[in-house]
Amino acid sequence: MALVPLRPGRAASRLLPLLCGGARSKGASLSPGAPGRLGQRRYKKDVLPSPDGPAPSVSITEIRQYLRAEDIPFHDGYSCLHTPSLFTGDGGGQPLSASAPFTLFIDKTTGSFLCTATLAEGTWQDFQANVELRHRGITPIPPASSEEVEEEMRQAREDARCIWERALPLWELLDEKEIKETKALFGISMVTDATLKRFGVRYLRTARSLVFPWFSPQNATLKGLKLVRVEKKGSTITYVEETLPRFDSYRNLFGLPLIGRRDTELVLTGWELDALALHQSAGVATLALPRGASCLPPTLLPYLEQFKRITLWLGEDLRSWEAAKLFARKLSLKRCSLLREEVFGELVNTEQVSGVKWARFPELNKLLKGHRRGELTIFTGPTGSGKTTFISEYALDLCMQGVCTLWGSFEINNVRLAKIMLTQFAGRRLEDQLELYDEWADRFEELPLYFMTFHGQQNIKTVIDTMQHAVYMYDITHVVVDNLQFMMGHEHLSVDRLAAQDYVVGAFRKFATDNTCHITLIIHPRKEDDEKELQTASIFGSAKASQEADNVLILQDRKLVTGPGKRYLQVSKNRFDGDVGIFPLEFSKASLSFSSSKSKARLKKMKGEKELLANKTVEGGSGASKKP
Ligand SMILES: Nc1ncnc2c1ncn2[C@@H]1O[C@H](COP(=O)(O)OP(=O)(O)OP(=O)(O)O)[C@@H](O)[C@H]1O
Q: Where does the record place the SF4 helicase domain (predicted)?
């Protein structure tokens, strides 16, 4: 596996030795004013895993052939193959009986398995190893999670239990007024006590949060919970969620214990309160995804196999609609239905099609309008001008708004990159304020951010396979590749380099389109005259890269003319609506940020690159327009 999520005790924790050296432990509070302890976190001094290949892929045909060859009975389900469990019953020696319950689910895409009876899970290789053990008469032992993960889950269970015990059923609050106000705050005035009771929703007064429990589907013990509180800014209301365990280990399909064996129709919602309301109003079986429209973890698919019809009800915005379409592919299109077409028709005309807006780069919004799925952005700039630093912040900005992001950093290692990002995230040098480190690291770990563990030259096929895997596993919608030169591969050195590059660009283009995933690809410029600014034609290689790209961004670095350290960002191609132009970037060395608050929008829109260059020559070759 060549992917690393930033999660507790893993990647981000490994940043710490870089900042202060040595191990640490901590006891962080769950949120200001909220009771409960996240407990001790252990940190290792080791570094990120060394580069390894992608997960060995297995096709569904191979899986079927293997099961037949091994005499293992199976049903062909929607997303999984179903077999009797290897981990229950009489153990080794005996062939698996077709009359046993089919509680083991093999993911058709990855070959990973989950036994819903014992919660044993593992890779396709683990499955084969366990079949082998049975042949030798040994009772298979479920592959164990690492000690670190076990400890984290145990701690989360304990913390969840403490909170759960302090939380009250909403209707047991002391006074009627408080109940009414609380329900109104969460928009659930119409939800009855019976519904709240059925779903086991409680209220934690001290944290002014609703509490949604995660019960084990096996034995109904509490595995974790989600807290939701309301934040009001003016007339805008936002719901803030926190989970135990942390988001990427929080795999609760909320409502699962209420599903009967015979239920065959389901409404799958993006959040818990929708599941409640829909169940109450339509009487249908409902489940809520643990992270809303942002992802559908494949480990949840086995629990959805029993449904013949699934209606995806993730939200009414375009992002939810796009997510629903991708989730439907995982769930099998033939049983899914989405929001009505007319609703989508209305959305097409709204602002939303322009994509996710950058919070730190308003000028980029004015030109590109936003970040959209399925596009290819090419980014270039002179050597050492700050390309990686800029793209790090540009991608972080989107990631902070829930865009699931995968980084392929082939030039600088992931620890260095994560350190740059963490500095940009915190907006300060944490080396100087170590007391703030824990808080920022905790928040950073919550981002939907993943890293490929490749370093140095890589074969494009391996990289594309890894990206494909990540899209399936983590619903990645933005991949950053830094940079193209590392994909040209040794084997291409003898052939035409331009043809090799065209091939690689074509492969990324196809990936972006096929997976409705945005790719930002950094490409070095060709050797240029230092005195001249870069243009689209300066991108290394043939014209293919700029033709295939939807957006071309150039980091202009004209130190000699415009004074020390001045950089400009030029949008030289914009397929979405054609606006091109240039705006200055203010760099702060302390926060490694290009979005310094001092920066006033001095955006200059241009009709085309030629006009842009001509204009600058008229203005004395200053490298960029200074006009407002
Ligand atoms: N605007 C800027 N002003 C001054 N220093 C900067 C600026 N942007 C980045 N830097 C610093 O310059 C160094 C190189 O930055 P970075 O690695 O992002 O450049 P790059 O263009 O990706 O390099 P390469 O061409 O080698 O891939 C880093 O130490 C970074 O902190």
A: 350-601
